[in-house]
Design goal:
Elements (H helix, E strand, L loop, with lengths): L10 H5 L4 H11 L6 H17 L3 H9 L2 H8 L6 H15 L3 H9 L2 H8 L6 H15 L3 H9 L2 H8 L6 H15 L3 H9 L2 H9 L7 H14 L3 H9 L3 H8 L5 H15 L3 H9 L2 H8 L6 H4 L9 E2 H5 L8 E2 L2 H13 L4
Antiparallel strand pairs: 1-2
Helix pairs in contact: 2-3, 3-6, 5-6, 6-9, 8-9, 9-12, 11-12, 12-15, 14-15, 15-18, 17-18, 18-23, 19-23, 20-23
Length: 346
């Protein structure tokens, strides 16, 4: 298609270039379609920037120092073609990933209003997905950026992308971005719930699809919406989240999805007696106990990166067994939170 960037392996180009300027020129020469050459070259350069910086902190820093961010932000504007906007957003995504200085610099350069605008119905589904991904990495562990993104009006667009009529990839991207906006941000937790995200995330838990990634994204988002937020804990269970989360524990959808479901149940149960009753009634305990078994994959039994809590399984298993076991795991934390409520009831 004229003007549409074709994926290439730019590693030989990167290997023979010493400076950003040489890389930029090489990207331009690498594209052989003369139609609408300005847009094509902009797109090629943006894609090359993404290739060079992806998961490479030193290159992320160097390319930003060379002045890439203002140019990429300009390419997000309405004057650019959709393919160029998508490539620019993708490059900003990679520049921001796990890089706090670049996260701040991209927002300071004015990227957020453009990216939020690209979430709207006027953009293609691919542009919407990449814009959501860029916003996700701008928001990740960055409270100021989380606030700025919500202030720019991102939540209604993201909730709209969670709709059943959206492609699964768009729903997943929206769920992941909403999760990054809620992390340790009580105002955003309340705002996202008020915008109607919870029923749509619950529906996504039960999506009939071969790809399990949207279910994991929904469980992760619900987990962060529920964390230390009693009103959201109640609203999520009232929306019917407990049964599909419990089903994910017992499904063959993979350890990552099972772990996400266990974490969500943990935060729904924490300090909330009514939710504990609902989760037990949904049949969670047998699945949680099974996931703690010796044959369970290590990712589900133990996650050192996201929890340092050692839990004595004896308390949780007193309803089922007299054996004493000690483990470090999210399934165990979920079981313990549920048991704490169950033990105080007749």
């Amino acid at each position: 298609m004229p003007g549409c960037f074709r994926v290439r392996d730019f590693s030989p180009l990167a290997a023979c270039c010493d400076t950003l300027e040489e890389l930029w020129a090489a990207a331009c020469r690498a594209y052989d379609d003369d139609a609408d050459s300005s847009a094509v070259l902009q797109q090629a350069a943006a894609v090359l920037l993404k290739f060079v910086v992806d998961n490479h902190a030193e290159n992320q820093t160097a390319i930003v120092a060379a002045g890439a961010i203002p140019r990429l932000v300009r390419l997000l504007g309405a004057a650019s073609k959709g393919e160029v906007q998508q490539a620019a957003a993708d490059a900003l995504w990679s520049l921001s990933k796990n890089h706090a200085d670049n996260q701040a610099a991209v927002v300071a350069a004015g990227a957020v209003p453009h990216l939020v605008g690209l979430l709207g119905a006027g953009s293609s589904e691919y542009v919407q997905q990449v814009a959501a991904g860029a916003l996700q990495h701008l928001a990740e562990n960055h409270a100021e950026n989380q606030t700025a993104i919500v202030a720019a009006g991102a939540i209604p667009h993201l909730v709209e992308l969670l709709g059943a009529d959206s492609p699964e990839e768009s729903q997943q991207a929206a769920a992941e971005t909403l999760r990054s906006l809620t992390d340790s941000h009580a105002d955003n937790q309340a705002g996202i719930a008020a915008a109607g995200a919870i029923p749509r995330l619950v529906r996504l838990l039960g999506a009939d699809a071969d790809d399990q990634s949207p279910k994991r994204a929904a469980a992760d988002a619900l987990q962060d919406l529920a964390r230390d937020h009693a009103a959201n804990q109640s609203a999520i269970v009232a929306a019917g989240a407990a049964p599909p989360l419990v089903r994910l524990l017992g499904s063959d959808c993979g350890t990552a999805v099972q772990q996400a479901a266990a974490e969500a149940l943990q935060h729904l149960a924490a300090g909330h007696a009514e939710n504990q009753t609902s989760i037990v009634a949904a049949g969670a305990f047998p699945h949680l106990v099974r996931l703690l078994g010796a044959d369970s994959p290590g990712e589900v039994q133990q996650d050192h990166h996201r929890s340092s809590l050692t839990v004595h399984l004896t308390m949780a298993l007193r309803l089922y067994t007299s054996k004493m076991v000690t483990v470090l795991s999210f399934p165990c934390a979920a079981a313990t939170n549920i048991w704490r409520g169950a033990k105080n009831r007749p």
